[in-house]
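Posting for a labmate who doesn't have an account.
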Amino acid sequence: MTVYSAERKQIHRAQSATVAIAHDYLTQRGGAERVVLSIAKAFPGAMIHTSLFEPADTFPEFADLPIRTTALDHIDPLRHNHRVALPLLARTFSRMKVAADVVVCSSSGWAHGVSTEGRKVIYCYNPARWLYQSDTYRPAGTGVASVTLSMLNRPLRRWDHKAALGAHRYLAISTIVRERIRLTYGLDAEVLHPPVTLDVEGPREHITGLEPGFVLCVSRLISYKNVDAVVAAMHGMPGQRLVVAGGGPDFKALQVSAPPNVDLLGVVNDNQLRWLYANCAGVVSASYEDFGLVPIEAASFGKPAALLRWGGFLDTLVEGMSGVFFDEPTPIAIGEAVQVLVKEPWSESEICRHADEFSESRFIQRIQTIAQEEASLGGSSSLVPTPNDRVVMTNAAPRMPLIPAPYRANHGAPVVTLAARLCDQSNDHRRGSRIGHSRDDHLVRLVEHVANQRPRQLPQRSSLVGPTLVARLAHLAGERRPVSQPHRHQPHGRDAPSRARGDNQRHRHRVS
């Protein structure tokens, strides 16, 4: 009788649950913004919380949806260049209070930081590129925003981890993003591919001056999309026309370098995009994509794709059936793939069936089911323990919070990096608290895991970590190294070190 009553309460809670949506910013026409429109279809009437909203620069469908912005939205330059606002977004989203039973956070680095008393579901496009993949993503220019982000890198990483560990469920847009989530946060995520939302049967607007048979590149014109390499490839193929649809900071530079057989259209609307897909020979992309919606949109029109063998494209292209891969984003490799693309006979029906696997109806059904499942759980605990507990338990087996490669590169040997990631435990020691034996066991397993891959190396002293943690890691790793005594064993009174309190305060710094 008790079990039945509990089940009824869960069903009632799920059916009457309120759902809200959070998104980083609505200032561009990209794949993430299309996903937000699909999430809004799944939950009609749900409030969309975002930092910035510029109706003229994003999809017109947002004008009919309930949207709540922040104080940043009143600053006109930020709405037209959201990258300038990046150093301000962590604090902005931390102060954003969302009242709902379930909050679906559409996030590539910021929206997952919202506060709510309900359940938080994070739909992750990628852990923040500017923190963990700075080699392939950099904010435009070297101005104040870029410099400030560099200065705030470490506290922003701490803020990002705290926000991620507050989730109740994590969703990833692709297999590679799921792996990055595991490496960055130590969390398991379900892969839920973004949907194709461009209606094949919708109206089409002919673009004057273009004849069918061109190769199409649909992309924002920013560095990591590698559109410059695609344009350069056309120098060696004067008989093949390339059409580039999309805008961005690199537009003027591409205009200067483009050969005569390349047309740069800038931003196009959906009617024009449908015409382009329907009349192209195929699409090409050399971008470092976390998912890559363009080849699936093209596939819904029966068109093949030539893609970089990397990232999300591995989920969206079936080689030999829906297109061809090239292994590096160089003009020569791209040119060879494009030649195969235009000469190979492709089956439109098979390509269209492949695109059906990414339908919007499938996506909506799954996201609704997830929200109902989370709502039925009510106010139970989050997906992971508190941020001080770095090991997540699943079926009684610990998942190790592995260190992402860019983080290792920045801080040297893996154990040093591990020490940097566990500096909170060092702070606990310095304040006089004690880390129990269970956490020692977790550290043993983690140190052994790292040591099996690379040699153990520990610094004599490190500004990143306290001496107590270095001593503990050295002991657990089997190294015997003299290390200074922890603060609680040092003398008090006039002989006590005067810097102890100041050091402790510096280690407590956080971005709220």
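Reply:
Got it, the structure tokens are right above this. The two ends are 46 Å apart (CA to CA).
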